[in-house]
Automatic annotation (TrEMBL), chains A, B, C:
Upper classification of the organism: Bacteria, Bacillati, Actinomycetota, Actinomycetes, Micrococcales
Keywords annotated in UniProt: Cell membrane, Membrane, Transmembrane, Transmembrane helix
Transmembrane segments: 6-27, 34-52, 64-83, 95-114, 177-194
Protein name: UPF0126 membrane protein
Keyword Cell membrane assigned: yes
One Gene Ontology CC term in the entry: plasma membrane
Family of the protein in this entry: Belongs to the UPF0126 family.
One Pfam family matching this protein: Gly_transporter
Subcellular location as annotated: Cell membrane
C-alpha cells in the first residue's frame, strides 16, 4: 500500500531548513555561541524525526545518519548566525514556511511509522511527534517551557488532524500521491487559518469550582 | 520463569491514570492550554514506560502504541482540565494512589526488562526509571527541576528496593503472583510510611570541610 | 578493520568517574539530596554513552546494563557528596581530567558507531554526542541551559575534530592502537590549549545589520 512519494526528498530538506531557522533564531536570542546556534538548528530541524526514528526503531536516525539533512540544518544555523537581523524581520514568511514544515513532517512522519509496521496508533503519535518534537527540543535546550504546550495557538491540533488523516488514508488503501498532498494541504491550511484568525486552544477550565 | 501476571492490565491502567493526573495538575498550574494539559498527562502517565521501552528495545513503546493506555492518560488530563479545583483538594488521596503507581511501575518495569533478557542490572535500572521517569519528564516539560532529585522525600528509594527485590525473586526462581504482589506492597508501604513520617533523604554533607 | 582496543576498559571507567564528579558537583550546588546527587553523577558520567547506544540501537545501553560502569558513576556521586568542598578546590585538576574524558569518549563513541555499522556520518555524530551528551543531560536535569551551547569555550569543537579524525582513520584502514591514541591526544591537547589560552567560539554575528 506504500505509494512512491516523490515529493518527499526535496520538500523534507526545505522543512528541515525552516525548522533549523527557528532553532538558530532561538539560539541567537539566547546569545549562544556559533556551535550552540548550529546545534539548535540541528535539534529544531531534525529533532522531531530523530525522536520518531528512535520510537519506531529506525536506527541510526536520519538526524544523525543522513549528511544532506544534517548539512541542511547546519546551513540554516549558519544563515541565522550571519543574517539574524534580516531574518527576524522576515518572521511572517518564516511562520508560513513553518506551517508548511509542520504539515509535511506530521504526514511524512506518520507514513514512516506505517511503513515500518508500527500500527496506526503508534504511527499517528510519532507523526505528531515528528511535527512538533523539533520545537520541543529547541525550547528545552534553550531553557524555555515548550511553546507548543502553553501558547494556546493551534499548532499541534493541525498536526493531529494530518497524522490521523494519513492513517485513515493508509488503512483504507486510498493513499496516493494526490491524497497525501491533500493531507499536507489540510494541515497547512488549518495552521495558516489559525494564525490569521488568532484561533486559540482554551486554558484550564474555570467552571469546575 | 516468567509467571503469568494477571494483576497487570487493569492496575497498570490505574497507574497510568494516576500518573496522568499529576501531569495534568502540573500543566494546569502552569496555565497550559488543553493540548498541553493532555500532553503532560501523557508524559507523566506513560513517560517512564516509554523511556524503559526505548532502553530495552521494545519499540514502538507502549506509550505510543497501545491506544487503551494513551486514552487513559488523556482521560486523566481531561479530568484535571475540568475538575482541577476539586482534584487539588483530593491531593492526599492522589498521593496515596501515586505511591501505588510507583510501586506497580517499578516492579512491572523491572519484570519487562527481565522478560526481554536485559539482565538483572539493566532491569533494575529500567524498573526504577519506569517508576520515576514520568515525573521527571513532567517536571522537565513544565520547566521545573525534577522534584525526585531534590525534594528529599523518600520517593526513588522505595522504587530501588522494589526493583531490586523483583530481580532477586526472578533470579532465584521464586517469582510468583504472590511474591510479585509482595514486592509491590513493600514499595507501597515504604513510600506511604515515608510520607507519614516525613522521612527524608539527606542533602549535601556538611562535615567534609 | 576493527583493532583491539586494550586502552578502553580502564580509561573509560576513569572517564565515567570524572564525568560523574561534574554531575555530582552540579547536584551539590543545587542542594539536591543524596539520591539526586548520585543520579546526576550517573547522568553526567554515562548519559552521553546512553544516548549514543540508543541512537545506534545497542540496547540495553551500557549506562544501565554494565554494573561496573554504574558503580563507578555512583562512586563519583558519593565522593562528591562527602568531599565536595575539597573537590571544588581541585577544580583545575578536574578540568584537565574532564578534557581527557571528553577526548576518550568522543573517539571511543565514534568507534562504537563504526563497529556497529552505523556509517561515517552517524558515527561522527554519535561520537560527539558521547563526548558532550553527559554534560547536556546534567545541565537539563539541574534546570540549566546546557553550558556547551553557550559558554563559548572551545569544548565541542575538539570532540568534533576527534570524532572526524577517528572516522577518517577507520575509513582509510589506518586505525591502530597508536593512531587511536593519537586521536585521543589531539582532542585532549586542543581542549587543554583552549582552556589555557581562553580561546572562545564567537557569539551571534553583529555585522549583518
Amino acid at each position: 500500500m506504500a505509494p512512491d512519494l516523490p515529493l518527499q526528498p526535496l520538500t523534507e530538506l526545505v522543512g528541515v531548513f525552516v525548522g533549523g531557522l527557528s532553532g538558530g533564531l532561538a539560539a541567537v536570542r539566547k546569545q549562544f555561541d556559533i556551535f550552540g546556534i548550529v546545534v539548535l538548528a540541528w535539534a529544531a530541524g531534525l529533532g522531531g524525526g530523530l525522536i520518531r526514528d528512535v520510537l519506531v526503531g529506525a536506527v541510526p536516525p536520519v538526524g544523525v545518519a543522513r549528511w544532506e539533512f544534517i548539512v541542511t540544518a547546519f546551513a540554516a544555523g549558519i544563515a541565522m548566525y550571519f543574517f539574524h537581523p534580516r531574518l527576524e524581520r522576515a518572521r511572517r514568511v518564516i511562520a508560513v514556511l513553518d506551517a508548511g514544515a509542520l504539515a509535511l513532517f506530521s504526514v511524512v512522519g506518520t507514513l514512516k511509522g506505517l511503513e515500518l509496521g508500527a500500527g496506526a496508533t503508534a504511527s499517528v503519535c510519532v507523526g505528531v511527534i515528528t511535527g512538533v518534537g523539533g520545537g520541543v527540543l529547541r525550547d528545552l535546550l534553550t531553557g524555555e517551557v515548550p511553546v507548543v504546550l502553553h501558547h494556546r495557538q493551534l499548532y499541534a491540533i493541525p498536526a493531529v488532524v494530518g497524522a490521523s488523516l494519513t492513517a485513515v488514508l493508509w488503512s483504507t488503501g486510498t493513499l496516493t500521491l494526490l491524497t497525501e498532498l491533500l493531507a499536507v494541504a489540510v494541515v497547512f491550511v488549518l495552521r495558516v487559518v489559525a494564525m490569521r484568525l488568532h484561533l486559540s486552544a482554551p486554558g484550564p477550565w474555570r467552571g469546575g469550582h
